[in-house]
TrEMBL record:
Stated family: Belongs to the class-III pyridoxal-phosphate-dependent aminotransferase family.
MF (Gene Ontology): transaminase activity
Domain of life: Bacteria
CDD domains, per the entry: OAT_like
Keywords: Aminotransferase, Pyridoxal phosphate, Transferase
Keyword Cell inner membrane: no
Name of protein: Aspartate aminotransferase family protein
Cited SUPFAM superfamilies: PLP-dependent transferases
Co-factor requirement: pyridoxal 5'-phosphate
Origin species: Methylomonas aurea
Amino acid sequence: MSFSIAELFNQHFSEKFELHEQHLNNQMVRVLRTIGYDRNYKRALGQYLYDENGNEYLDLLSGFGVFAMGRNHPTIVSALQETLTMELPNLVQMDVSLLSGLLAKEILATCPDNLEKMFFCNSGTEAVEAAIKFARYTTKRSRILHCEHSYHGLTMGSLSLTGEHIFREGFGPLLPDTGSVPFNDLEALENALSGKDVAAFIVEPIQGKGVNVPDDNYLPEVERLCKKYGTLFVADEIQTGIGRTGKFWAIEHWGVKPDMILMAKALSGGFVPVGGVAMTSKIMDTVFNRMDRAVVHGSTFSKNNMAMAAGLASLHVVHSEKLVENSAKIGNEIIAAVNAMVPKYEFLKEARGKGSMIAIEFHAPKSLGLKAAWAMLEAANKGLFCQMILIPLFKEHRVLAQVAGHGMNVVKFLPPLILTEKDRDWIVGSVEKTIADTHNVTGSIWTLGKNLAGHALKNKK
């Protein structure tokens, strides 16, 4: 009897939500059904998703950024199919991999010239875990510093460096000897580093939660202060890297040279889990300093041929299709277009970000009627106004996006880097229509708002 994934998919297509309710995280199914995101997607191509009725959706979530090249890119698909048919030796373990060597060479060519070595793993959180260990061993210090409201992952070490408390609650005690400072606060950073006991300062060049962009002097001063106090400067580019912000690495906007760059997400085009750490030779040679230490840190599936092939193909697509340049052009045009709306709409505070990492922030209006409506939502659940934007964007305009973090009135766009001018106009038009609708407190969108507030208050009891 033959085995067919296509047959299984078609046979059980309508059972997706029931299977998750029975065997997986049923709370996720409840969320999707409550906000009306419970669609049965049947196909995906590029920046678009297609449901069972053939409706096209513009994906501004891109799997939390992993589909930077779009879904099912033919070049990456072809590379993976070719790799599967080559009968290559894979994960021999008592050997070294050709494809991982080639991918390391390609990645390091994009990095600052002080980074000469690569370590591969399976995910962003594994890259953070590796950085913690490498920093401690290299500096012979134990303290790891991060920023408030940061997000670095959900395994125990990376969770200890994640500043969003909702992710940490109930999972302690976490990794000892960690601490946080406010993002974009150089005085607080220097105070924390001045004791000369900090192994590494791990920072997102642009914070993912909230899309917080630093002052122009922040990261150059971070580099200077870390050098002054003997602390390793680690740039977490897991979300911001590989073209996301309109530069290959976000650190290029500020011309800095960290001691490590952490990467994952877009590195394999979304096909195969992969992560990595680019680092100085000093760090690599300190950690792996003798033959008997050749295996002191690693991961069974790291450097597997499928992940490495996907990474090589993804980098080829980024360069050959000029996706970094497209990310900068289309993304910055979206930011500018939304900012041009600010004078017209009281709820709209600003759009910000760089390239295709975009935040739209809302705030309390000045006029009495709108202020009362805003206060009703905030009293029910801080940040609830964003759902009044996101749900109509999805249901009425078929644009899929997300909130930028818990308890904040910020909508976040993290689209594939392949957006066209037509997609740009689709986004801008949909955003403006939705924001305009929120300014009519007698309209149907505020019926949605009242229902959301009712659900939020019920869940608090």
